[in-house]
Input
Amino acid sequence: MQDFGHILDNRVLLVALLACLIAQILKLVIHFIQHGKVTVRVLVETGGMPSAHSALVASLAAGVGQTVGWASPEFALATIFAIIVMYDAAGVRQAAGKQARILNQIIDELFREHPTFNEDRLKELLGHTPFQVIVGSALGITISCLAGPAY
Output
């Protein structure tokens, strides 16, 4: 437990977290451009442009490759982890969001027929489009490359 304080010395981790933070801030900016209002809630919500998950794991994998080596088992592990996270963001969670949208339509129809029926709506924006994932991963890799001298 005494070594836990050294976690802030892990520059690969810090750069990956920075990539995630920048992606989240970009979501806020993009939402403002699209809707003309600042909605701080987008900073903690899933989904949206760019994918912060993708930025985080792509930056992590690139940072591991830069510091440990592109042929290392650590880079292979980080890359496989990144692929799984990005696939999940664009595949499984995107499909769950589509299902939630359909279920919400069913709930809306029930409200019309039974006004006493009260059920919370399901969250529809769970995942990302493939384009949002690609942009997030490109952002993460770019940030990692720019931070390369800090490693």
